[in-house]
Amino acid sequence: MTHNLRIGIPSKGRLSELASELLAQAGLNFRRQDRSLFARVSQLPVDLTFLRTEDIPVLCAEGAIDLGITGSDLVEESNADVDVRMSLGVGRCKLALCVPDTSPWQNAGDLSGKRLATSFPNITERYLAKHNAQVHMVNLSGSVEIMIQLGVADAIVDLVETGSTLAANRLRIMTDIGHYETVLIQNKEKREAATVDRIIRRLEGVVIARDYSLLEYNVPREQLAAAEAITPGFKSPTISALEDPAWCAVRVMVRRQDVISVMEKLETLGCSAILQTDITNCRL
Ligand code: AMP
Fold first, then answer.
1. Which of 5, 9, 18, 77 is the most exposed place for a label (fewest CB within 10 A)?
2. Does residue 93 have its Cβ closer than 6 Å to ligand 1?
3. pLDDT tens per residue across span 207-264
4. What global pTM score does this model have?
5. Is the CB of 16 under 6 A from ligand 1?
6. CATH of 5-91+181-191, one of 3.30.1370.110, 1.10.3720.10, 3.90.190.20, 3.40.190.10
């Protein structure tokens, strides 16, 4: 007997909107009524459950949901026994050990005997144990960045994205403990494998498209090899002949972050009509 696949997504917070947008772009359309806990995806055997982001790893490990969207930091912190199926290209951040701007401490060992506030006690304690630092832990569920000012901690371990929260609280990073991002996780039983594969293919299409642009340009044939070295493409560029036999046209995927510098290099090589097009979805 087949069941609907259950996907857990964050009900609120910073990942909630990112996850909903990603699913919609991947053609998983749903309507959530009045903050309801459940929604059915149209035209697919899939039900969505709206959950707290931090509960998603454990609920996935326990089989309440088959797939979940959550942070890889929360997967590691929870020690949940799940498979990470793919990175979703959003929510990138790092977990950092931070101290006041003016403090003299340079490494974890300097914090022995001090107090450390965090909402990631498991990851933090593993890190401290590895560095032989005996630290008094102050475990909290949030607002960790103000705990030094409140006088309850000497150092903190917190997520950092842009660093502006740290700057506002006059903190500096002593060391990075780990890098994290939003991921798709799966229960080990792997129910409804065909539907899961279909959803992963759809999500991959969106995640890759968000990362890449399509670049088209004309290149003198004798410079083709040099141009291909600059734009090797995802698999291989498409080359077409132009009416002028001395020239050809190239279509190729280029990482969005590299597009401007790649365009400059192609121009220097003698390429012309260099066009960037955004792609919203792809199957490679
Ligand atoms: P920022 O000021 O951009 O460095 O952001 C830091 C604040 O946002 C911290 O309080 C973190 O708890 C939170 N934060 C940053 N990135 C993430 C993320 N990917 N997931 C959840 N919380 C985050």
1. 18
2. yes
3. 999 999 999 999 999 999 999 999 999 888 999 999 999 999 999 999 999 999 999 9
4. 0.93
5. no
6. 3.40.190.10
DSSP string, the chain: ----EEEEEESSSHHHHHHHHHHHHTT--B---TT-SEEEBTTSSEEEEEE-GGGHHHHHHTTS-SEEEEEHHHHHHHT---EEEEE-S---EEEEEEEETT----SGGGGTTSEEEES-HHHHHHHHHHTT---EEEE-SS-GGGTTTTTS-SEEEEEESSSHHHHHTTEEEEEEEEEE-EEEEE-TT--SHHHHHHHHHHHHHHHHHHHEEEEEEEEEGGGHHHHHHH---SS--EEEE-SSTTEEEEEEEEEGGGHHHHHHHHHHHT-EEEEEEE-S----
User: Would you say domain 212-278 falls under CATH 3.30.70.120?
Assistant: yes
